[in-house]
Specification:
Residues 12-188 form the ATP-grasp fold RimK-type domain. With 197 residues, the protein is α+β, with helices and mostly antiparallel strands. Helix content is 28%, strand content 30%. The protein has 2 domains: 24-82, no CATH class; 86-190, D-amino Acid Aminotransferase, Chain A, domain 1 (2-Layer Sandwich), CATH 3.30.470. Strand 10 (146-154) and strand 11 form a beta hairpin.
């Protein structure tokens, strides 16, 4: 699971299976940071953006690059830089075995729908056959049977962002009525997810 969550590994797999990716760089090169900053790009952690201080935790999420921030602060800490795409909507696609649970996400926050105090609307949706095929190929290559894919969609073009090998899913079940939990239970008890929707 740790290997599957690695963003460098994921970028390689995403290219191999044929996903569209926004322009990106995983680097501590300040020249590249300036390049993405000039494009009004975004910055996010390479791994889990969790900072622990004493007994408290903070989480670093996706943000627009702040051009006023001193570039030298990145010299010793690689970050994930990405071009910003003005999306029409996002999709969280949860895969359990052979079943897919796609959810369209409409967010008031155009950078990261997980931000606090954000207004979000969820709805079930269909996905293009090619995207589903690529997701299963991706899962096969990283040896996973469960994963949560995040996409942004603009003008019917799907852009792969990441696959979370231990992604949260329960709130989607509450919001949409999708029965993800039943598929997980069935897979864990029988090893099968070939059931009618």
């Amino acid at each position: 699971m740790r290997r599957a969550n690695n963003k460098v590994f994921q970028a390689s797999l995403a290219t191999e299976v044929g996903f569209n990716l926004p322009e990106f760089a995983i680097t501590n090169d300040v020249t590249l940071l300036k390049h993405f900053s000039d494009q009004k790009g975004i910055i996010k952690p390479v791994a889990i953006g969790e900072i622990t201080r004493d007994s408290s935790k903070e989480f670093v999420q996706t943000n627009l690059i702040d051009p006023s921030f001193a570039a030298r602060n990145f010299e010793y800490s690689p970050v994930y830089l990405q071009s910003y795409i003005q999306k029409d909507f996002e999709v969280r696609l949860t895969i359990v075995g052979e079943r897919v649970f796609p959810v369209k996400i409409h967010s008031q926050n155009n950078i990261d729908w997980r931000k606090p105090n954000n207004k979000v609307v969820y709805e079930t949706c269909s996905i293009p056959e090619g995207i589903e095929r690529n997701c299963f190929a991706f899962m096969e290559l990283c040896g996973m049977r469960f994963g949560c894919f995040d996409f942004i969609v603009k003008n019917d073009i799907w852009y792969f962002l990441e696959m979370n090998a231990n992604g949260q899913w329960a709130w989607l079940e509450f919001e949409t009525g999708l029965n993800i939990s039943e598929s997980i239970i069935d897979y864990l008890t029988t090893g099968s997810t070939k059931m009618e929707p």
